[in-house]
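Note to self: keep these together.
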Amino acid sequence: MPENASAAAAVIIAGGGPCGLMLANELGQRGIATLLFDDKPSTSPYPQANATQARTMEYYRRLGFAEAVRAQGLPPDYPTDVAYFTRYTGYELARYALPASGRAREMVKTLSGSWSAAELPHRCSQLYIERVLHAEAERLPSVSLRYGWRLIGFVDDGEGVTVEAERVAGGGRVRVRGAYLVGCDGPRSFVRKTLGFAYQGETASRDFLGGRMHAIYLRAPKLYELIRAPRAWSYWAVNRDRRSFLIALDGRQEFVFSTQLKPGEEDAVISESAARAMFFATLGCEAPIEILNHLSWTAGLTLVAERFQEGRVMLAGDAVHLFTPTGGLGYNTAIEDAVNLAWKLAGRIEGWGGDGLLASYERERQPVARRNTGYARRFADSIGGYVPPAELEEATPAGEAARRAAGEYLNRHARAEFNIPGITFGTRYDGSPLIIDDGTAPPADDANLYVPTATPGGRAPHAWLPDGRSLFDRLGPGFTLLRLGGKTSDAERLAGAAARRGLPLAILDLPLDELRDLYQSDLALIRPDQIVAWRGNRLPEDAEGLLARLSGGAPLSRAGTR
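Structure:
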């Protein structure tokens, strides 16, 4: 596009990481004209997040590319264990065994209770997942991806947002008009800073996972010959000299390694030879390695932005919340931001959403960001605050006793951090103006326990249907009214009311006793993000009023694109 040319899009996205790309996919599958800018030449060339939670995989399934994501990363027969060592070639202290990704499809259909889900987690680097998200977004006719461009300004005039962007490599500047702008542009977000919103929360200084860390992306084809223990996805080194963790990326030769910087190890003086020495110190020996990249980063963050939106400008992902990576919650929380925001943007653009629809975004997502950063902080305190005893590496009876005690502690920690269905599935929007409270109380928020409940405000309880399909596969891209008590109800009144206001609604008849027992009602109205918005045995007399409430107070007469 030539300099100073103008273009139009319904939604402009700043940032092409997982959050921005997921938002583009959500909007693009709804046919919403979307334009994304990112200052990188393409998707990230470096590993970052490494764990895709089951709820995120359910979102990918809904958009049709869960299998493409599951094909990335480790080989299907590679175990996803979490293992703790004194050094990677030293004593093994503890191991939390987890299945290989190739077993996920068969296992998920055998699970119930806390792990009743359409998908299981997938251990895979963001390095690979971004490529899938990019490829899927690129296929959508209404989505335009412009990598190598950065935002340099924007103005919200109340009727729309005018954005200016320039080519990073030089040679062009554009002015683009959109209905909305979403900043998914990371921790140094230009959009957030321009709005003047600050982060609030805490930073932590601890011996491990607090303060400055150094990460190395490396290729080490001989590493598995040196680490004689059974293979793992995540390796942790626990000793008094240098703490670290190592993530297997491809199951063959590529890894990402992070270690705590010691006092005096300034970022500016970490040469490649110094980075090698850090790695060898926790490996326990030297090995042939190729360093593909190395850089420093900050751990110990529990930060949430004071605001998530102003006018026609919204923020999502790392632009509004920063995590310590324990629990793998940062990237997954960002994906959920995008899912929550996308259908609300679509509602406003398509005309069936009222003024309160987008206003609910901050109201719903900010408490979740505070909840999830808090959980990540607790996990970081648990592993980072653990002090290895001096005798841990000794080949003595005292050393054996120390290793046994360390193993007990680390096994408890691993079960707490890496088996978190309560966090994964337990996001709730209680108190949201888009949720109709039915007077029942949800289960307590427990990181390691998820109790399926149809109490409005949380994820719709999952079930496998008699035909082998997931219930979630039957939920549409709009609202879905589950009719579980037979066809005696007057659900057609709701369908008529939805049609009059242009709100997308499907009626799904599943008169199954087990589903009726699971949902504890004859009817349940599910939002586009698979959240229970209302349930009951009979529709309210005012079906119009019900839909107006759930769509943000939209009036009956549609005003078209807003």
